[in-house]
Amino acid sequence: MASSWFSRLLFWPRWFWRQLTSMRTALFLLLLLALASIPGSIYPQRSADPNGVRLFFDNQPELAEVLDAIQLFDVYTSVWFSAIYILLFVSLVGCVLPRTKVHLAAIRSKPVKTPENLRRMAVHVEGQKKIELANAAELLRDRGFRVQQQGNSVSAEKGYLKETGNLVFHFSLVGVLIAVGIGGGFSFSGQRVLVEGDTFVNNLASYDSIAPGPLFFEDELKPFSLTLDDFEVVYDLRNRQNLGQPVDFIASVTLDDGLNELSDEIRVNHPLEVPGANVYLTGNGYAPVVTLTDGEGNVAFSGPVVYLPQDGNMTSLGVVKAPDAIPKQIGLISFFYPTVETLTSGAYTSIYPDPIDPLLTVNVYAGDLGLDGGVPRNVFALDVSNMELVAGRDGPNPPLELGVGEVVELPDGLGSLSFDGLLRYASLDIAYNPGGIWVLVFAALALVSLVLSLSIQRRRVWVRVTDEKIEYAALARGDDAGLESLVLEIKSEIEERS
Amino acid sequence: MNIVLNEPLSQLSLLFVSAAMGFLAISLLLFSFQLARLSQDEADSKFERLGFWLLGLATVILGVGVVMRGVAANRVPWANMYEFSISGALMILTIYLISLRVRDLRYIATFVTGFTLVILFAAVSLFYVEVKTLMPALQSYWLVIHVVVAIMATGFFAIAAGFHIFYLLKAAGVGEKVLSRFPDLKQLERIAYRFNMVGFVAWSFTLIAGAIWAERAWHRYWGWDTKEVWTFIIWVLYAGYLHAMATRGWTGKRAAWLGLIGFAAVIFNFTVVNLFFKGLHVYSGL
Ligand code: HEM
């Protein structure tokens, strides 16, 4: 009574588990996974393209709200995407574990009992020539079969590695998933812009932005410092159709790990190994060095300013904020043209990315920079709502224009600006992912076992000798085009030996 | 950095590619003619032999064209869409000609020549670009490995897709006369499975090699970039196909459709994703 009550209680869970671990469900979930991956290639993703997401919100705010609500900007970490792959992997484990048990038993057991009626097998031929069973057994053993002589017959089996390969393949996929998950947890990546001559010291405060995994702790940052000695961009000067195309970016750096100082290069595709991380080169640009002197003659700002490239010829945009300038706070919005050219409209453009004829144009704003509100401000944007344009295209005075080494006065006695020199900067990514190597190991294991699983045939072969006849038969898992020729080959070889 | 580009040589290579297209077109005509009158005639006709002779010639000429393009650009000739296309066409023809030595697959010659002709036509008319040096992110030996294996996988998938199409036509009873020369459904399915299997292994390798390269070039091995997404989708679709082939009720027509969907994703990945989707793989070079 109790047991039937108990089994009735377990009926639905059992049923559910059987459904989940069936081949049809696995197939369905695989197709669903493919389908669910598609939207992430259509809509910008926060992880890969945060700027695209921001633009989407600016352009179509209502639609963006809706899409965001169903996580279409975070497809690969979304609830629904996760649900699919977790179900798939539960199904996988539930499917593969029982098969592993069966397979382990099969490996240890002897070849199957020779069937009574060999005519029913996929391949069946009769031999005319008399043979010795012992020869047949020996030959099959030489061919890598597991062999057992059973009275008047020999039963042989081979290709266990096919199922082994299949099982290892599926387990390796689980390995990949776990390594990705755990590795991601311990990983971190941080970004830092470094101007020529600057030094980066590895601690959290030195990063411009940082994305640590949930299991990452600050004390995992190993001590080192990195100085950008020089940054060189090599342009193609030989081939007309390619002129101005960058062919190499070379960041010459000095790495100091506390024990040694070491000079090295970082290039695209050639990250630098530093203690506990790799340093990658991800971007570059110009950093004009400027000095802003206020109306009182005090230096209100001095140093290199990171300019963001706007086009292929490195027209770049930079912002300077001088909150301490007297009598009024000063903000500058400035364009840098490495090789300047005047368009027919009178506007400037850059026609070559290297600084052959560099020019800085500057719009000057005076008033309140709005920095006191305690709200973090984007260093690349100037809030001009409480400021007055004193020099600029639409302002009372024309924009300032400076070549390297030049000084110009600001209007209204606000001070002066000098363009002291030109440096380059490198955007560096400092990244650490301990899971990567394990992902690779499991992926490689998956690949090797996949090849085994797909290339090996599981075959059973029988030879029976009775007074009336000599029979050869074979059976394979799945369809096996080479089975018949294999049996004929074996037959003639056995006959040769006898 | 002293890479010298040789555009005149690239133009000459274009001439070779075009010549290969001419020979392919003639052999396509011969194969189609042969197929159309098959019901009366025995397999081994003069037309067909001439067709294969021309197919071999076209492959050699195309091969010369591809090599010349590589020499002109001073690197492997598979770094933009034009180059993928001509290398891919060469790969498909080579795989086909080699498999002909293993097995009699003459009956899909029309499909193979027709398909490569379409690819080459798209290449010379839509995708052609002057030779350019590589952007720094592409300057890596992984370009050689990752892309060549991807092209190989595509070649195997393409031929399998041909088998799927003929399987479905035959199963639907379309063009019975023409298709009578083709082997039975079981055989067609099995051969498609073989090609897809090799394609899948190659694609798996492509995926892994791509991740290793991404770790070098973009500081992470996987970031769901659009191209990565589609590589993954294709991989999952073909894994689905392999599963279908082992699932009762899913072999035959359903599996054939799955294989075709997988191949449609391959084509989509190469065309629409390259041209219209935003991402890091901005090498289409158009
Ligand atoms: C992440 C999910 C999965 C992936 C990517 C995957 C992939 C594959 C691939 C590529 C194959 C063909 C290679 C081989 O035979 O070893 C295969 C075969 C197989 N898979 Fe999976 N699989 C997954 C989940 C599952 C699940 C959940 C099950 C069980 C329901 C399953 C059962 C099988 C079986 C039985 C075969 C052998 C088919 C045959 O005999 O040809 N797999 N799988």
Helicity range of chain A: 25-40%
| Count of all domains of chain B | 2
Strand content of chain B: under 5%
Q: How many individual β-strands of chain A?
A: 24
Query: Ions, cofactors, ligands: which are bound?
Result: protoporphyrin IX containing FE
Largest sheet features of chain B: none
Largest interface: A-B, 58 and 59 residues
Task: Please sum up the structure shown.
The complex is a heterodimer of chains A (498) and B (286). Chain A has 498 residues and is α+β, with helices and mostly antiparallel strands. Chain A contains 10 helices and 24 strands.
SSE topology sketch:
The complex is a heterodimer of chains A (498) and B (286).
Chain A (H helix, E strand, L loop, with lengths): L1 H19 L2 H15 L1 H4 L7 H10 L1 H9 L9 H30 L14 E5 L5 H10 L3 E5 L2 E6 L1 H27 L1 E8 L3 E3 L7 E4 L12 E11 L10 E11 L4 E7 L4 E3 L2 E18 L4 E6 L3 E2 L6 E7 L6 E9 L2 E3 L5 E3 L8 E9 L19 E5 L8 E3 L4 E3 L5 E18 L3 H20 L3 E7 L4 E7 L6 H15 L1
Helix pairs in contact in A: 2-6, 4-5, 6-8, 7-10, 8-9
Chain B lengths: L6 H30 L9 H28 L7 H22 L6 H19 L13 H32 L3 H4 L5 H33 L8 H19 L8 H24 L10
Protoporphyrin IX containing FE (HEM) sits at the interface of chains A and B.
Could you explain the architecture of this structure?
The complex is a heterodimer of chains A (498) and B (286). With 498 residues, chain A is of the alpha+beta class. Chain A folds into 3 domains: 18-98, no CATH class; 110-159 and 457-497, Kinase associated domain 1, KA1 (TATA-Binding Protein, 2-Layer Sandwich); 188-432, no CATH class. Helix content of chain A is 32%, strand content 33%. In chain A, strands 4, 6, 10, 11, 12, 21 and 22 form a 7-stranded antiparallel beta sheet that branches. In chain A, strands 13, 14, 15, 18, 19 and 20 form a 6-stranded antiparallel beta sheet that branches. In chain A, α4 packs across α5 (61-69). The mean pLDDT of chain A is 89. By secondary structure, chain B is mostly helical. Chain B folds into 2 domains: 1-134; 141-286. In chain B, α3 (81-102) packs antiparallel against α4 and α5 (141-172) runs antiparallel to α7 (185-217). At the A-B interface, α2, α3, β8, β11 and α9 of A face α7, α8 and α9 of B. The complex binds protoporphyrin IX containing FE.
